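step 3/5: co-fold with coenzyme A
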Amino acid sequence: MLASPSLATLRPLAREDRERLFDWRNREEVRRYMYTDTPIACERHEAWFEALSGNETRRYFIIEWDGQPVGLANFVDIDLVSKKAAWAFYLAETTARGKGLGAWVEYQMIEHAFNVLNLEKLWCEVLESNGAVWKLHQSFGFQTEAHFRRHVIKSDGPHDVIGLGLLRADWATVREGCRARLLSHGYAV
Ligand SMILES: CC(C)(COP(=O)(O)OP(=O)(O)OC[C@H]1O[C@@H](n2cnc3c(N)ncnc32)[C@H](O)[C@@H]1OP(=O)(O)O)[C@@H](O)C(=O)NCCC(=O)NCCS
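step 4/5: write tokens
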């Protein structure tokens, strides 16, 4: 769908990705950042995957690096009445992390939300303990709108959650700076 000369690509999820997602989602390096951090059974994954087709409130994209699938980015709760959606992402292949790819994906997902889905607001929730990610979102103009205390109970106990939101007007303010940052890291946007 969207390509950059620096080897990053986003493409829509395909049926062939079903097993890959099962593998990724059950990796410790992905699970630990999710609300559900216990392994997901095969039958539950199959049911979840099947329920995706025809669901207009969700859109999933595979993140590729140099032609290899490395992660997932998605919109959920797409609400065309209130013109908003939530989003999330992960790089399952840890070798793909720390190259600026996450920041490139964030830019592309925001652009998709406002220019393709024509939304007015993009929002997300992040574990408070995952400070690198909510700070990354803030650097793209997301504002902290909520601090939910003891909001999720994971295998190691309760966690607080940060709620962040980005309005179309917020994005207009920071977009050029974000674009310049990505260009300086070698990403075409
Ligand atoms: C979140 C994630 C996609 C970020 O992707 P990434 O490619 O590693 O991040 P980038 O290399 O683009 O870095 C983006 C910025 O975040 C910072 N950053 C990223 N990971 C960091 C970490 N673990 N600690 C501190 N800073 C970090 C980078 O320094 C960079 O800052 P800069 O733009 O000022 O240089 C990836 O780390 C991941 O998959 N994490 C696990 C899943 C997850 O937490 N998903 C979010 C759940 S809501």
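step 5/5: annotate
The pocket of coenzyme A is lined by residues 33, 88-91, 97-103, 126, 130, 132-133, 136 (CB under 6 Å).
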